[in-house]
């Protein structure tokens, strides 16, 4: 697993040590819990959604550096975005970490999320990187069950 070190780029390390929006929102109107049994990553995502926009987002929980950094960067990037924009980002991010080439040949513009591109070489880690996003999606869809990556 020595090659994993290549994945732990500075931004990932930094976000896993000091995750952003790492708190539960007291006024949340959307909430979901996500669990990745393969790695043990477990997070709760809370949101304030108003007029189809993500006004605020927070997450809490524990897991590996990749899952935590991914959740942290996710909260930064989707805050203020519309629900539609957030699901489009998830699609693009999913393509990126699964190494799927975009159909039109253009790399999707995922901003800082690009640091997770290396994850595509580690299939088991894809679940770590996408857990928070799956959980976000469940929260937006109003699902009550715990979201798992299995
Ligand atoms: Zn993990």
Could you explain the architecture of this structure?
With 150 residues, the protein is of the alpha+beta class. It has one domain (2-148): Sufe protein. Chain: A (Alpha-Beta Complex). 40% of the residues lie in helices and 19% in strands. The longest helix is centred in the C-terminal third of the chain and has 19 residues, at 123-141. The model has no long low-confidence stretch (mean pLDDT 90). Zinc ion (ZN) binds at residues 36, 39, 41, 63-64, 66-67, 128.
Q: Low-confidence stretches at least 5 residues in length (pLDDT < 50)?
A: none
How many strand segments? 4
Count the helices. How many? Answer: 5
Radius of gyration: 14 Å
Largest sheet: 4 strands, mixed
Structural class: alpha+beta
Order of helices and strands: HHEEEHHHE
Provide the number of structural domains. 1
- Kindly, what is the distance between the CA atoms of the first and last residues, rounded to a whole number of angstroms? 22 Å
Q: Provide the CATH top-level class.
A: Alpha Beta
Strand sequence of the main sheet, in spatial order? 3-2-1-4
Mean pLDDT: 90
CATH architecture: Alpha-Beta Complex
**What is the beta-strand fraction?**
15-25%
> Roughly what percent helix?
40-55%
Short descriptors:
Sufe protein. Chain: A; alpha+beta; 5 helices; 150 residues; globular; binds zinc ion; 4-stranded mixed beta sheet
